[in-house]
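Hi V.,

You were right to ask for the full record rather than a summary. Here it is.
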Amino acid sequence: MVLTIPTKTLPRGATISTIVLGVFQSDPGAETYNAVLSGLKLGYRHIDTAEYYENEADVGRAVRDSGIHARRS
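Predicted structure:
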């Protein structure tokens, strides 16, 4: 099952999802990895993360393991 997530077009023509998966209070490790991987499988393409959250390695691993490649507009 893949969700249809609405997008907005930015001034230069790129699009961005209006629904965001945030990982601010997600514990580093399996919790973050599984949440991001599941979100990507459902159709999420916008993930709010920051170095401060200390879980960016898990986000990156989930993105890599999802097999979804970056798309350039």
